[in-house]
Write a structure and sequence with these properties.
The chain has 107 residues and is mostly helical. The chain has one domain. The chain contains 3 helices and 3 strands, in the order αββααβ. It has helices at residues 3-38, 65-76, 80-92, and strands at residues 52-55, 61-64, 102-104. A 3-stranded mixed β-sheet has the order 1-2-3. Helix 2 crosses helix 3.
Length: 107
């Protein structure tokens, strides 16, 4: 294959990934809007939109624990142990009212 052909494949792949990211971002924004429409008092976790899984019948946001921990490790440079401890104490352990988010493990 030529260098030009490789370059075109690379550009297509990058464009495809950009489209997937844009679509995911749009869906997450729509999900957040649905949560707030369902319950104006719902609490969302700052900086962890990628971990948002959905919401329950009372309009409480539901987050994937593993995704939050992964973000803490990747974005903040924590080890797994540091990220888990931070999540457990500062995020899961924070009661912010009746509509505190729910955290779940994904199997």
């Amino acid at each position: 294959m030529s260098k030009e052909s490789d370059y075109i494949k690379k550009c297509r792949k990058e464009l495809c990934l950009a489209e997937i990211r844009a679509d995911r971002k749009k869906r997450l924004e729509e999900l957040k809007e649905s949560i707030v429409a369902s319950n104006e008092e719902a609490m969302l976790v700052d900086g962890h939109d990628d971990a948002l899984a959905g919401y329950d019948t009372q309009g409480r946001a539901i987050y994937f624990i593993d995704a939050i921990i992964g973000t803490l490790m990747q974005r903040d440079g924590m080890t797994y142990e540091e990220a888990y401890e931070f999540f457990d104490f500062n995020i899961a352990g924070a009661y912010v009212g009746e509509y505190t988010p729910i955290y779940m493990y994904e199997e």
